[in-house]
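Quick one - first record:
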Amino acid sequence: MYKDTLRFKISLLSVSLLTLMAGAAVAPGLSEINRVFAGYSPTVVKLVISLPPLLIIPFSLLSGLLSSVISKKNLLIAGLLIYLVGGAGAAFVDSMLPLLLFRAVLGMGTGIILPLSTGLIADFYDGDQRSKMLGFSSASNCLGTILANLAAGILVAINWHYIFYVYFLAIPVLLMVIPFIEGQAPPSKVAGGKVSDIPKELILWALAAFLVMLAFFGVVTNLALLIDNRNLGGSQVAGIVFALNSLCMLLSGAFFLNVQKKLQMFYSSFMLFLMAAGYAGLMLAGSLPLLIVSVILSGLGTGLAFPFIMNQASRYAREDNSIVIMGIVSSSAFLGQFFSPLILDNVPNITGSPLSNIFLALAFGTGIICIINLARSISRGKHELKGSSQENWAE
C-alpha cells in the first residue's frame, strides 16, 4: 500500500522539517538583529521569533476546518507557498514593521501546514507504527532546525538579512509533496456541518504542549544572548550550540518509543528531570563546556516530551477530527512559544541577572512538576503491585 512506501513516508515527514524551525531558525542571529534594531526593546526584537506562533494558532484551527472542504494535499501546498513568501520575504526588508509583517505571514503558512504534518500521520497510521512515525516527525522537526541553525549561524556573520534565506528549504519540500503525496490523503468527514466534539481530556495534553514549548523557547530566545553576554562565543558558536540542541532532540525523538517502553511509568519523570537539569546548568553556565552539557540535557528532555505529548493526543483522533485534534494541541504549543518571552522576561529579579532568572524559573518550575509526577508514578506503582499481590493471594 502507498503508505508503506519509503518515498511516501519521506514526503510526509519532509513537511515536519519546516514547522519547528519557523521561529527557531533565526535564533542564532537574534543578538545581531538586536544590535541592528538597538532602538527597540529586547522584548520587541524577540517578536521576530515569537510573533509567528501568534498567527500559527488561529490558522492551525482554520486548517482543521478547511480540511473538511479542501483536498488536504491542496491545502498543504497552499500553506507551503505562504510559508515560503513569509519566511524568505523577510530577507528583503530593512525596518522592523515590514520585518514583523513577513514574520506574521510565515506564521499563517506554518499554521496551515502544522496540523497536517501530524494529522496525516494520525490518518494513515495507528498503534506502534503511529507512535514511531510521530517520533520520526518530531525528529524531522529537529533536523530542519539543525540545518537552519547551522546555516543561520554562517549567514548572519555575512549579513543579517541572509539569515532568512534558510526558509528556501520550503522549495524542496514542495517538490516532494506535489508528486509523492498524490492527493490520496482521506478528506475529513464532517457530520451535520460540524467537526465531531473535542474530548475534554485533550485539555491536559494541550496544556502540557503549552508548557513544554514555553520552556523550550525560553532557551531559544535567550541562548544567543547568554552566549554573547557571558563572552562564550559569537553567532557561529550560537549556531553550533543551537544545532547541538536540535540534534539531541532529534535523537531522543527518534528513539522515544524504545525509551518509553523501557521506562514505562517513569518515562515522563525522566524527561522532566533532564529538562530541569539542563535549565539549572544554563543558569550557572560560565564556561562553554558546562553550557554544552546543559544544552544536551535540555535537548534530550524536550525531544522526549514532544512526541510523547503528540502521541497521547493522537489517541483521541479519528478520521473525522484528526486535523482538528492535532491542530488544537499544536496551537497550544505555539501559544506557549508566543507567550514565552512575554512571561519569562518579566520574571522577578531574584539573582541579579535577568538571564539567570529566566533559567532559574524554568529549572524550578520543571523540577517541581518532575517531583510531583515522580511521586504519583511511585504511588501508582505501589497500588498496582498491591492489587497484583491480592489477586495472586486470591488464586
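second record:
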Amino acid sequence: MSEPFVPPPYPYDRLDRLRPLAEHFSDGVVDLSIGTPFDPPPDAVVAAFGTSGSERGYPASIGSMPLRSAVRRWMSRRFGIDVLESEIAACIGTKEFVGTLPQWMRLRRPDRDTVLHPAIAYPTYAMGATLAGCRAVAVPSRPDGGLDLEAVDPSDVARALLLWVNSPGNPDGSLEDLGAVAAWGRRHGVPVFSDECYVEFTWDGRGRTILEHGLEGVVAVHSLSKRSNLAGARVGLYAGDPELVHYLGEVRKHVGMMVPGPAQAAAVAALDDDAHVVEQRDRYLRRLTAMAAALSDWSGLDVVLPGGGFYLWFEVGDAWAFAGRLMSDGGALVSPGEFYGPDSAGFVRVAVVQSDERIALVADRLRGVSR
C-alpha cells in the first residue's frame, strides 16, 4: 500500500528561524531571499486594471486576442521572430504552469513518466513532477554551466515527458545554448519547455529565446512578474509548437485556468511599453553591482555578477552558517543553496529586489563589521 503524500515544508518558511538574529537592527530586516519585485509598474499599466470593463465577463483561458497580439508584437521587437497568436497562450503566472504541466503532459503521453530538469534549479520543476506522480530526474551541469544532456541515462530519455531548461537561470544566472537544447529535444523526441522569465535581464549579450531556433517541439515560457513588476497580477504566457500550445490550452480551458480580464488588459499596456523595462534593467544592474561589492568586501569572497537575472549566486561552504552571519552582521536575509537542489548546498542566493536605499543600508551595516 502506498503512503499518502505529505507536502514538505515550503523552503522559504524555513528562513524564519534566522530572523531573530537581526533583532538588534532598529530599521529591520532587508529581505533578499525571495524574488518579489519591489519597484512599481508604470502608471498606465496600473490604470488599465480599472478601465477595461473586462471584469464583468469570463476571460478567455488562452488569453484575449489583444493580449496575444501584444505578446506577438513584443516577441517581434525583442527577438526578431514572428509567432502567431494561435501559437501563444496565457497562464495564471508561470509558477502554476510549471507546477501543473507534468499532469497534462502525462495525460498526453501515459507511456512516459519522467520530468528532466536542471540539477541547480527552481524547485517547482521537481515538485510539479512529484505532484503528478512522475519521476523528477536532475540533469547535471557541464563545467561551463550549460546542461550536460549527454550525461542523461538513455533509459531516462526514453521515459521523458519533457525537459525543462531555464535561461537566464534561477538561481545561478547561467545562460544556456538554447539552440543545442532544442536540437537535443528534437533528436530524442522530448518536448523542451524553456523558462525564460528573466530574459529581459540578460547581462552577457542580448536576451535569447528558444523560439529563435524554430517552434517544433519547443515551448517558451515568459512572465510579466519580473519584467514589469506585476507579480501580484499573475500574468504569464507560453508560446511555441502549435500542437503543444493548442493541447495545453484545451486542457487548461476545461480546468477553468483563466487570467482575470483586468490583469490581461494591464498586461497589454505593459507589453507595449519597453521604456519601463530599460529603467528596471538599470536598477537591477546597479543593485547587483553594489551588493556584490559589499558582500565581497565583508566576506573576502569573490562575488561576481551573473550572466542574467537579478540574483547573486556564490559558493560559501556552510550556507546556513553564512546566512546566519549575514543576518547578524548586515540584517539581510538570503536563501541557502539547498533550496535549489542537493548540488547547491554550499551556495547562497541573494535577490537584489529591495530599493537602492535598503541595498545601501546593508552595505553600510557590513562596512561596520570586521571580517
